[in-house]
Amino acid sequence: MDIRIDTSQTVIETERLILRAFTEADLSDFYAYASVPGVGEMAGWPHHQSIETSKSILRSFIEGTEVFAIFHKAEGKVIGSLGVHEPPPWAGKDERYKHLNAFKIGYVLSKDFWGQGLMPESVKAVINYGFDKLGIDAFTCEHFTENNQSQRVIEKIGFEFVMKGEYHAKLLDKTFDEMRYIIIREDAVLA
Fold it and tell me: Torsions phi, psi of 27, nearest 5?
């Protein structure tokens, strides 16, 4: 079964947030959080040095239809992104998981909104949508070992730790130790 979350055709609403496709009108909001030192680096990319960098990446988000904008209702602006991508190679090589329809979740949140429970709210909503509406079997997620914020998000949601690994961030030209996790739909059949 060919399953895909198409952000251009999907809107997911939570109590405080709307997850929707990025638009060109989101450029200044995107640049505002992506240009803050330390935000992108937690996800393996350098913070944006110019609005032109943000514009180019925003265009790829719009064309790629794999990345949700996280729109904060009360603030009236985009405060982060949540991508739903092909699963990482490690999940496809693991005998327990290789038969599952799995997707990888990655996310970034504006530093101004850290610690408010917004990312667990976003990720849970996407997982529930994927499990309930699309029949996705599993989601994977990773974090660099020193990224305690992402670790807390992953643990709050109920991901299961699978293994440690390494990730080479090409844009930073740096290799990170990472922790790898999976969450499986309750009725999914395991190998």
Answer: -55, -50
Dist. CA 119–CA 31, nearest whole Å: 19
The CATH H-level superfamily of 7-184 is Gcn5-related N-acetyltransferase (GNAT) (3.40.630.30)
pLDDT tens column, 10-51? 999 999 999 999 999 999 999 999 999 999 888 888 999 999
pLDDT, tens digit, for every residue of 158-180?
Answer: 999 999 999 998 888 999 999 99
CA-based nearest residue to 181, from 99, 69, 113, 87: 87
Residue keyed to tokens 């299961």: 160
Q: In whole angstroms, what is the distance from residue 139 CA to residue 145 CA?
A: 19
Query: In 31-47, which positions are buried (b, 16+ CB within 10 angstroms) versus exposed (e)?
Result: bbbbbeeebbbbbbbee
The residue ranges of every structural domain in the chain are 7-184
Asked if 159 contacts 182 with a C-beta cutoff of 8 angstroms, the reply is yes
SS3 assignment, position 174? strand
The answer, as to whether pTM is greater than 0.90, is: yes
- CA–CA distances in Å: residue 135 to residues 11, 70, 78, 150: 17, 23, 28, 25
